[in-house]
Fold this protein.
Amino acid sequence: MKNLIVAQVGIRRDAEGRYSLNDLHRAAGGEKRHGPGYWLASQQTQDLVAELTDTGIPVSVQRGGVEQGTFVVKELVYAYAMWISPAFHLKVIRAYDAPEPTERDMLKALNDPEQLRGVLLGYTEKVLALEGQVKEMEPTVVAFRRIAGADGSLCLREAAKALQMPERKLAQWMHEKEWLFRGPKGGWMGYADKTKAGFLTHKVHAYFDEKVGEDKVSHQVRVTPAGLAKLAKMLGVELAEEYDAG
């Protein structure tokens, strides 16, 4: 997989070797009208993506971590660059065609202030991007640690509020993921493997039913702090996939 530097901007790659459209956008000048989202939304781009069936997944949207952003295969890099301008398209072509630097080239760069400046700028931008991502993720990390270390458990309504989604939607999603099932009386119950893993627990409540004049017992499924942290992580992954599909 070739390292790519366009207009002194290092273009990141994901684990599959796809290139970052966000970095290419910055290399092109970062104008709003050239945003990757506008290009991806065009019918011509969608038709091109549909044709790239032999490249695995042509477009991948990452919603967190070091590889955050939109990554595309080489063919789409060319198409995006052409969409921006002929001049930028030419820069991208030349960047791809440029040979990989040899050890001699690297030693030469150390003695060439202009080349050295370009290399340092590329690495500096990568470091700044990583620092920015770490700073953005910090509140989430702190929240997850607070959740995972908290005492007590949450009912489905409280868990749904913490995850910022409707209670009914959360319950249905947990049912589809085989966390919950309907008990004999229609209430939600947790699967044994999830309770054994410490993600769910059941609260038993004994009460006297005045209508029938007898003691009864009700069960309420509750989400533990560890379960809430696990659900938050799972939902983050699934929401990113839904965004890609859309």
